[in-house]
Amino acid sequence: MSSSVPSSAAVPQTTALYGGQSGRRITVRDIAAAKERGEKWPMVTAYDAMTARVFDEAGIPVLLVGDSAAMVVYGHDSTLPVSVDDLMPLTAAVVRGSSRALVVADLPFGSYQASTQQALETAVRFMKEAGAHAVKLEGGRRVLPQVEALVAAGIPVMAHLGLTPQSVNAFGGYRVQGRGQSGDELMADAKDLAAAGAFSVVLECVPADLAERVTASLPIPTIGIGAGPATDAQVLVWQDLMGLTARPAKFVKKYFNLAEEMDHAVRAFADEVTSGAFPTAEHSYR
């Protein structure tokens, strides 16, 4: 029996990442193809099934279950306290709530730095138990062994350079990274990560000109957050772009004032309850 498959099955049809209708999950091959076409695309965070469904149906091609959940879900003041067990159910919910987006799970602080074996065990959990399609980790050359081990095991890896929030204490705060000589080091890290097999790299809070040079130098897509307009993609935390964050970073554009709308809605509900206007017969059973 021949083991060959039709070429149409072996090579997915080209589809636009944002808003495309492929009838299947976005894959890392689609991400690579978008880079070749010069197509820009959006990525947003998601932490539950309902918002994942909204973003998925809106055509967002990549959803990140970020360790930013430590702050926007669990109320911490940094990403450091969140654990694997905290992020596992969130990742599973986002996978269940979406049908087209590539779902990327952040590996939280302390879950991959110790060794390649630790990184592999953590990533396997996210892939097997939560259904993630890829994982993200922070750092440059110091995590190259982990990236290589994960890729060798068949686990797609999204890298993260620049302001890596898990290293905020080492940086002395949330500061722009990559100015001066450190820009050359970031460029070297980016090239090494691509050579190690990462399928993309997030560039956070780096000068726009550096992000442009890194993007032009890499065969894999760059995803900017506070890195200027030249990156291949852009990512924001959904609570930031929807206006739920009280003091967002400079790089955040608020596309909607959801905090104000929620305030109006819950006050209207409370007023109708206290006045007796709700519920009416329309909202009651007989």
From TrEMBL:
It comes from the Bacteria. It catalyses: (6R)-5,10-methylene-5,6,7,8-tetrahydrofolate + 3-methyl-2-oxobutanoate + H2O = 2-dehydropantoate + (6S)-5,6,7,8-tetrahydrofolate. Mg(2+) binds at residues 67, 106, 138. The active site is at residue 204. It comes from Planomonospora sphaerica. Pathway: Cofactor biosynthesis; (R)-pantothenate biosynthesis; (R)-pantoate from 3-methyl-2-oxobutanoate: step 1/2. HAMAP family: PanB. It holds the Pfam family Pantoate_transf. Signal peptide: none annotated. GO terms for cellular component: cytoplasm. Homodecamer; pentamer of dimers. Keywords: Cytoplasm, Magnesium, Metal-binding, Methyltransferase, Pantothenate biosynthesis, Transferase. Catalyzes the reversible reaction in which hydroxymethyl group from 5,10-methylenetetrahydrofolate is transferred onto alpha-ketoisovalerate to form ketopantoate. It is an enzyme of class 2 (transferase). Its cofactor is Mg(2+). The lineage of its organism: Bacteria, Bacillati, Actinomycetota, Actinomycetes, Streptosporangiales. Belongs to the PanB family. This is 3-methyl-2-oxobutanoate hydroxymethyltransferase. It is found in: Cytoplasm. Binds 1 Mg(2+) ion per subunit.
